[in-house]
């Protein structure tokens, strides 16, 4: 531990995150839940819902973390837009 903070193997000296090799760790079952909020103009939300954004399907092309794509069952991110 340095400066009162724990030494984290996935954070380098400059504070940047990087991947670490976990291949020697035992398998465990974990469940994670995440939530986020995005503020936007009502007009922007309407364009997204209608699929009329200038650059195309905003939700369909939204990037997902690589680990999520490899490990999670497929779900529709569209269902989160209300």
In a few lines, what is going on in this structure?
The chain is mostly helical and 82 residues long. The protein contains 2 helices and no strands. The protein is elongated and about 45 Å long.
Sketch the topology as an H/E string, one letter per element. HH
Describe the oligomeric state of these chains in a short phrase.
single chain
Structural class: mainly alpha
Low-confidence stretches: none
The chain-level mean pLDDT equals 75
**Portion in beta strands:** under 5%
If you compute it from the alpha carbons, what radius of gyration comes out, rounded to the nearest whole angstrom?
Answer: 19 Å
Give the number of DSSP strands.
0
Calculate the terminal CA-CA distance, rounded to whole Å.
44 Å
Work out the helix count.
Answer: 2
The major pleated sheet works out as: none
Helix content: 10-25%
Could you characterize what this model shows?
By secondary structure, this protein is an all-alpha fold. The N and C termini lie far apart (44 Å). It is built from 2 helices and no strands. The protein has a domain of 39 residues.
């Amino acid at each position: 531990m340095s400066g009162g903070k724990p030494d984290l193997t996935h954070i380098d000296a400059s504070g940047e995150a990087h991947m670490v090799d976990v291949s020697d760790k035992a398998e465990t079952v974990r469940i994670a839940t995440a939530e986020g909020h995005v503020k936007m103009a009502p007009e922007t939300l309407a364009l997204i819902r209608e699929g009329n954004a200038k650059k195309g399907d905003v939700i369909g092309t939204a990037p997902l973390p690589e680990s999520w794509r490899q490990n999670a069952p497929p779900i529709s991110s569209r269902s989160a837009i209300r």
